[in-house]
């Protein structure tokens, strides 16, 4: 009883002292988010760059690396100038305001919770980098470099920023109670849907689907996948914004889902095609990682195991359906892995966050919807809205960019390869 009475006395006599103590910087949390920020950037550069680079043909590998690096630069500057303000400024239910443009009012001592706001801004910047970078897998090997830059910049402001505000910046989906711990809607659904729309609008690569277009360097791809696995600990664990049990559990369930997704995909391929492939293993790994992302702060290990197993099965099926039935050239499987995984993971966050599922119980509903059905409905609203909004706006942006600079290289340039055509360089000089 002494401590509460003592604090009450301080509040009466020295209110500023108590408030200052409550708003003080937490060194442990700050150190963890600093590390998480580096891990998430590591996912993009070099993780995603190597993962995607190995999957394309050798004549296009340098173009993929260049696109990943260029998007990192463009997204970083846009996030500084206006993106962060529109995403996390107070604004209204739909979009933020201009109060934080160029980090106005944010100094070294300014806090977001108990970490520096400059660090929170930087952590969120790494999410803004990787999301448009994921989309390039949908139009790999055929989009002009100028069109890619223009599309990525406009898309970041018109799609990524509003959805971020809806879900994390005090917008209407956050108010509704949507569970999206680290980016099921914000990152994976937006990127996956945008990649699918881009693949349809640009059309398939020359020779698809009759000509085999295998990855040119699986060693590079597996190396990149390993970097993604490690970096995802910062992606999901860092989203707790604290060095605590929430971050620890998020990392644990992330790892479990990744392992389950990789092994499930491997077993399916083994059974169906006679041999397991490294490509299948790393694709299942990424499917498990993407699917657990929105649920990682709300589910326990049992739920993560089921989510990872389902990710392997459902995302594998989706890749086969997109390419073989619909014949859509989503070149690097962005929609069936990230889009489908993000949709499924966001919906399952409403299921496995329930506290009444025994060993599969999660940690949700403490401050949210009071029933599984109610939470699942909120998740559905978030998923459906994100899909429709992203698809419509992405389509308009692509048509606008196409009218301005043209979207894809011509047939002769595509045959020659984007490395030479767009950059006058080659990935290999052996």
Give the helices and strands, then pairings.
Layout: H1 2-13, H2 15-22, H3 27-55, H4 61-88, E1 111-112, E2 115-116, H5 117-135, H6 145-168, H7 172-176, H8 184-202, H9 218-237, H10 245-273, H11 278-292, H12 301-325, H13 334-352, H14 372-405, H15 411-416, H16 418-423
Antiparallel strand pairs: 1-2
Report on this structure:
With 430 residues, the chain is mostly helical. It has a single domain, classed as Ammonium transporter AmtB like domains (Ammonium transporter fold). The chain is 69% helix and 1% strand. It has helices spanning 2-13, 15-22, 27-55, 61-88, 117-135, 145-168, 172-176, 184-202, 218-237, 245-273, 278-292, 301-325, 334-352, 372-405, 411-416, 418-423; strands spanning 111-112, 115-116. A two-stranded antiparallel ribbon has the order 1-2.
Short overview:
The chain has 430 residues and is mostly helical. The chain has a single domain, classed as Ammonium transporter AmtB like domains (Ammonium transporter fold), CATH 1.10.3430. The chain has helices spanning 2-13, 15-22, 27-55, 61-88, 117-135, 145-168, 172-176, 184-202, 218-237, 245-273, 278-292, 301-325, 334-352, 372-405, 411-416, 418-423; strands at 111-112, 115-116.
Quickly list its features.
single chain, 430 residues, mainly alpha, Ammonium transporter fold, globular
Radius of gyration from the CA trace? 22 Å
The strand line-up of the biggest sheet is 1-2
Major sheet summary line: 2 strands, antiparallel
- Tell me the CATH architecture: Orthogonal Bundle
Q: What's the SSE pattern? A: HHHHEEHHHHHHHHHHHH
> Which stretches are low in confidence, meaning pLDDT under 50 for 5 or more residues running?
1-21
Q: What's the number of extended β-strand segments?
A: 2
CATH class: Mainly Alpha
Helical percentage: 55-70%
CATH topology heading: Ammonium transporter fold
CATH superfamily: Ammonium transporter AmtB like domains
Taken together, the total number of domains comes to 1
What share of the residues does DSSP label as strand, in percent? under 5%
How many helices?
16
- Name the shape in a single word: globular
Derived structural class: mainly alpha
Mean pLDDT: 93
Query: For the terminal residues, how far apart are their CA atoms?
Result: 75 Å
């Amino acid at each position: 009883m002494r401590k509460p009475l003592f604090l009450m006395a301080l509040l009466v006599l020295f209110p500023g002292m108590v408030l200052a103590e409550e708003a003080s910087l937490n060194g442990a949390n700050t150190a963890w988010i600093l590390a998480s920020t580096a891990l998430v950037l590591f996912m993009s550069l070099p993780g995603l760059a190597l993962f995607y680079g190995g999957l394309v043909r050798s004549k296009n590998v340098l173009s993929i690396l260049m696109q990943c690096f260029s998007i990192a630069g463009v997204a970083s500057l846009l996030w500084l100038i206006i993106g962060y303000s529109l995403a996390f400024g107070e604004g209204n239910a739909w979009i933020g305001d201009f109060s934080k443009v160029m980090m106005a009012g944010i100094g070294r001592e300014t806090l977001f919770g108990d970490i520096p706001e400059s660090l929170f801004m930087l952590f969120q910047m790494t999410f803004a980098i990787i999301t448009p970078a994921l989309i390039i897998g949908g139009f790999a090997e055929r989009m002009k470099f100028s069109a890619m830059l223009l599309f990525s910049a406009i898309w970041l402001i018109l799609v990524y920023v509003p959805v971020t505000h809806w879900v994390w910046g005090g917008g209407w989906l956050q108010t509704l109670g949507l569970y999206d711990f680290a980016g099921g809607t914000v990152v994976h659904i937006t990127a996956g849907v945008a990649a699918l729309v881009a693949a349809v609008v640009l059309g398939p690569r020359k020779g698809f689907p009759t000509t085999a277009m295998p990855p040119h360097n699986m060693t590079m791809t597996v190396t990149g996948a390993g970097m993604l696995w490690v970096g995802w600990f910062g992606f999901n664990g860092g989203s707790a914004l604290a060095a605590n049990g929430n971050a620890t559990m998020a990392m644990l369930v992330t790892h479990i889902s990744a392992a389950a997704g990789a092994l499930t995909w491997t077993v399916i391929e083994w059974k169906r095609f006679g041999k397991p492939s490294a490509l299948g293993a790393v694709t299942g790994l990424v499917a498990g990682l993407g699917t657990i992302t929105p649920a990682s702060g709300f589910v326990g290990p049992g739920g993560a195991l089921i989510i990872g197993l389902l990710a392997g099965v459902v995302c594998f099926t989706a890749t086969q359906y997109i390419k073989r039935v619909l014949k859509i050239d989503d070149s690097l499987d962005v929609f069936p892995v990230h889009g489908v995984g993000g949709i499924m993971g966001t919906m399952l966050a409403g299921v496995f966050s329930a506290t009444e599922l025994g060993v599969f119980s999660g940690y949700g509903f403490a401050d949210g919807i009071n029933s599984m059905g109610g939470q699942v409905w909120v998740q559905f609203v978030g998923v459906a809205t994100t899909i429709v909004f992203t698809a419509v706006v992405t389509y308009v942006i692509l048509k606008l960019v196409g009218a301005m600079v043209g979207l894809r290289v011509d047939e002769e340039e595509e045959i020659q390869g984007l490395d030479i055509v767009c950059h006058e360089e080659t990935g290999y000089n052996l």
